[in-house]
Amino acid sequence: MAARLTMNDIKVDAPELDSIELDLFVQALQKRHGYDFSEYAPASLKRRLRLLADQLHCKTITGLTERVLHEPQLLPNVLEGLTVPTSEMFRDPAVFRTLREKVFPLLASYPLINIWQAGCAHGQEVYSLAILLEEAGLYDRSQIFATDLSDRALQRASEGIYSVKDAQQWSRNYQAAGGTHSLADYCSAGYKLIKLNQRLRRHVTFALHNLAIDGVFCEAHLILCRNVLIYFSDPLQDRALALFRDSLVRGGFLCLGLRENLNPSHAAQDFSPFIESARIYRLPTQAEGAHA
Ligand SMILES: C[S@@+](CC[C@H](N)C(=O)[O-])C[C@H]1O[C@@H](n2cnc3c(N)ncnc32)[C@H](O)[C@@H]1O
């Protein structure tokens, strides 16, 4: 006679339960608010979800799912918790130095320079780039398109106001990036805050753009997307890299974060390393493409 199953026999072990809750959360977020996190790397997404559940006093991820469904005002907090909008000015200064010394001289040959900064978080990289372009005499023929999926992050980015406690480190980064003035020349300090000079915004357009669902953005000569792909699974990284390839002019540059590379991507085959140590890649120029 077949043994009867009891409820104890069909218990689901903890890791699997985690994955079920994660899937349900992702579906709820997509169906209710249109944000697709289904292709984010699950391990880090789970970690951030647990943290967020904790911060919002939810006992489980399912508790968080319920709140996401019924409390739309929570969405900005949820996006912030899931996407980690942390950054700093002149982050990895050697990369900015390389951009300034090796990439800017090549960009200088274009009458107008379009730069797309994807995943701009609170804007620290945007202002860093604007400062270096200004010092290289290129800013007045540049346009920076700074995008992110988070409205709140873009709002913070356009304000350009940061805690003064970061200023010393950022000032050191600026010098290490080859800055020729003093960072203080580009900001004013108030009570515990610094505000970046709003003149630096004159060639910046902030816009919502989601690398998981949106299309080609502009015809860019340089794209920076640093410390974003690291949160994506391989197919989403491939999608984003194909988007960058299709948005770049021939001979255009792509700069990724130091912990990122082109490896898992089909689109990678279209790029050549330019300065690998700084994770700067390049599409072949028209002439190189013809000889390939
Ligand atoms: C860790 S921050 C990186 C900030 C900056 N690029 C840097 O390296 O300092 C990651 C940013 O990517 C954004 N992001 C995450 N997923 C995105 C997506 N699918 N489309 C556009 N931006 C995204 C987040 O909102 C966040 O602001």
TrEMBL record:
Residues 10-272 form the CheR-type methyltransferase domain. It comes from the Bacteria. SMART domains: MeTrc. InterPro entries: Bact_Chemotaxis_MeTrfase (IPR050903), CheR_C (IPR022642), CheR_MeTrfase (IPR000780), CheR_N (IPR022641), SAM-dependent_MTases_sf (IPR029063). Signal peptide: none annotated. This is Chemotaxis protein CheR. It comes from Dyella acidisoli. The lineage of its organism: Bacteria, Pseudomonadati, Pseudomonadota, Gammaproteobacteria, Lysobacterales.
